[in-house]
């Protein structure tokens, strides 16, 4: 990260003890940032992070985005906010959707309001492809978070706080996700459980997701939403790639689609793409800035829509098994697992 942007700045990361917060904090500590504040609920995780990153510029705030006062306290005199706190497990949000409303929607509103109150200059909110045409409560609540973020600019055209969003695909090797699951199944000599071999997902590394937030932070204007162009793969190919790397003979067992999951995910809708700016590796989707004169919503349409299709994991360029293997080899966690399994030649091929 360029030093100048963060020089002398105070930055709040909500949900800062998660994998994203952790990675960003580490990267920021390499700059001349003045202070990084981690706002999160779990003091044990904070303690672990404090020991891992012993730096006086890193401060820990116990709090919850559901509680406005705790958010406002962490934001006092802050300059920038990365809003990563969320309930993001699909199944738990299905069982407790109101909890997703409280954290992902109302909590995000608290973050925006507290940022405004403290004259924070930029807030970047983290969203997911599951917010696009959502079918599960987690995705629906994230879609509403995006609306909360974008409506801030619509209602406050002269605001000094710029609020933007980014949308991720699946972050590879994130906690509880399918890649570490496949690796554990291989290590245990079990079959690889594939839900639906034809299901597709966008695959991103944690480093990609941090770069996306940084890009948004550097380029955002009020209400913008950023998407990183990503490659996709089928789950069958992903399972095969993991098996190949570990030279595993584990068979693939098809277990069927789980509750509330989709065959493919979309990172942007065709309606969004009609007004998006192509920025090379990224799309920037500006907010729909028509004002609250409803006739404009009803009477002025968009003639371009028919020329675009959704940016969907089923239709974008798909990696083949070999390409997925190479992508997996860029992940430090996979390299560690391969080293532990004595597959040094695999790692060496990529050095
Ligand atoms: O045993 C399994 C488990 C999963 N899958 C498949 O692997 C893909 C990825 O599954 P993950 O569980 O890794 O990820 P999800 O797409 O379900 O969602 C994940 O990524 C989201 C972000 O988009 C959220 O963070 C969410 O909480 C997190 O589980 C899916 O197609 C899923 O069907 C299998 O084939 N076998």
From TrEMBL:
Keyword Isomerase: yes
Pfam family, one: Polysacc_synt_2
Domain (Polysaccharide biosynthesis protein CapD-like) ranges: 11-285
InterPro entries: CapD_C, NAD(P)-bd_dom_sf, Polysac_CapD-like, Polysaccharide_Synthase-Rel
Residue ranges constituting the UDP-glucose 4-epimerase CapD C-terminal domain according to the UniProt record: 288-335
GO molecular function annotations of the record: UDP-glucose 4-epimerase activity
Keywords noted in UniProt: Isomerase, Lipopolysaccharide biosynthesis
The protein's Enzyme Commission number: 5.1.3.2
GO annotation, biological process: lipopolysaccharide biosynthetic process
Family matches, as PANTHER family: UDP-N-ACETYLGLUCOSAMINE 4,6-DEHYDRATASE, UDP-N-ACETYLGLUCOSAMINE 4,6-DEHYDRATASE (INVERTING)
Entry's family note: Belongs to the polysaccharide synthase family.
Protein name: UDP-glucose 4-epimerase
Species name: Arthrobacter bambusae
């Amino acid at each position: 990260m360029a030093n100048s942007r963060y020089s002398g700045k105070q930055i709040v990361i909500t949900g800062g003890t998660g994998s994203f917060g952790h990675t960003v904090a580490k990267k920021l500590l390499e700059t001349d940032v003045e202070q990084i504040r981690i706002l999160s609920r779990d003091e044990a995780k904070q303690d672990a992070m404090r020991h891992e990153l012993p730096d006086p510029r890193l401060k820990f705030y116990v709090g919850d985005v559901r509680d406005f006062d705790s958010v406002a306290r962490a934001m006092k005199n802050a300059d920038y906010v990365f809003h990563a706190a969320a309930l993001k497990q699909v199944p738990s949000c299905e069982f407790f959707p109101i909890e997703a409303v409280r954290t992902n929607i109302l909590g995000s509103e608290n973050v925006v309001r507290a940022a405004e109150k403290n004259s924070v200059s930029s807030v970047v909110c983290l969203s997911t492809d599951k917010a696009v045409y959502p079918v599960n409560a987690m995705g629906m609540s994230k879609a509403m978070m995006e609306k909360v973020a974008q409506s801030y600019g619509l209602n406050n055209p002269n605001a000094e706080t710029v609020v933007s969003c980014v949308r991720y695909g699946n972050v590879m090797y994130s906690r509880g996700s399918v890649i570490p699951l496949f690796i554990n199944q291989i290590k245990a000599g079990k079959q690889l459980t594939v839900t639906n071999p034809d299901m597709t997902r966008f695959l991103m590394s944690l480093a990609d997701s941090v770069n996306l937030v940084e890009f948004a932070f550097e380029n955002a204007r009020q209400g913008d939403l950023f998407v990183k162009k990503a490659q996709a793969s089928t789950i069958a190919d992903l399972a095969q790639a993991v098996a190949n790397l570990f030279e595993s003979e584990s068979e693939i067992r098809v277990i069927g689609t789980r509750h509330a999951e989709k065959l493919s995910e979309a990172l942007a809708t065709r309606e969004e793409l009609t007004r998006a700016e192509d920025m090379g590796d990224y799309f920037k989707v500006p907010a729909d800035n028509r004002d609250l004169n409803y006739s404009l919503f009803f009477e002025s349409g968009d003639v371009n829509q028919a020329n675009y299709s959704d940016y969907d994991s089923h239709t974008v360029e798909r990696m083949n098994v070999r390409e997925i293997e190479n992508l997996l080899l860029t992940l430090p966690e996979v390299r560690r697992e391969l080293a532990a399994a004595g597959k040094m030649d695999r790692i060496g091929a990529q050095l």
